[in-house]
Amino acid sequence: MKLLVFLNEHHVQYEVIHHPQRFTAQELAQIEGVKGSQHAKVVMVKSNGSHQMTVLPSDRMLDLQKLDETTGKDWQIENEDEFKELFPDCETGAMPPFGSLYDLPTYVDASLTNNDTIVFEAGTHTDAIKMKYRDFEELAHQMVADLSIKSW
Q1: Are 75 and 45 within 8 A, CB to CB?
Q2: b or e along 102-118 (b: 16 or more beta carbons within 10 Å of the residue's beta carbon)?
C-alpha cells in the first residue's frame, strides 16, 4: 500500500489498528478508542473541476464558507463517485489524509493541530494508523486553516 511504503521510507513511527468494518467517522473514533478530536477524517471537495482534500477531526463538520474565504474559490463537497478513481489503492471513502500521495492540495483544519497523536483510516474500512501529529504535519505538505464547526 502506498501509505505504508511512504511512512516506512520516512522512518515514521506508527501503529496499525485493525478494527471491525465501520463507515462513519464517529463510529471509527469510538471503535478505535480515541476522542473525535483525534480521529482525522477526509472530506473531498471540488471547484471548477479541481479536486482538493480537506482533513478535519471527526467531531467537526467542514464549513464551506470558511474554506471558500481561505482559498478564494467556491467549493462543493464531492460524493464518493466523484473522487473514488483518485485513490485506486484505497477502498472508497477510506483514503488516508495525505493528499500529497495523490497529487492533491490538502487543507487541514487548525483544530486538528491541538493533538499529540492522530488516528486515520489507512486505505481500508478495517485498518487505521495512529501516529504523532507532528510527524503527520512534517510529511503531509498541507495548509492549515480554520475550516470547521463543531458537529457533536
Answers
A1: yes
A2: bebebbbbebbeebeeb
Q: What residue has cell string 486515520?
A: 120
Asked if 33 contacts 151 with a C-beta cutoff of 8 angstroms, the reply is no
pLDDT tens digit sequence for 4-58: 999 999 999 999 988 777 656 666 666 677 777 898 999 999 999 899 999 999 9
**Contact criterion met (CB below 8 Å) for 128 and 33:** no
Closest CA to 20 of 7, 12, 30, 8: 30
Tell me if residue 64 falls in helix, strand or coil: helix
Domains assigned to the chain? 2-150 (3.90.960.10)
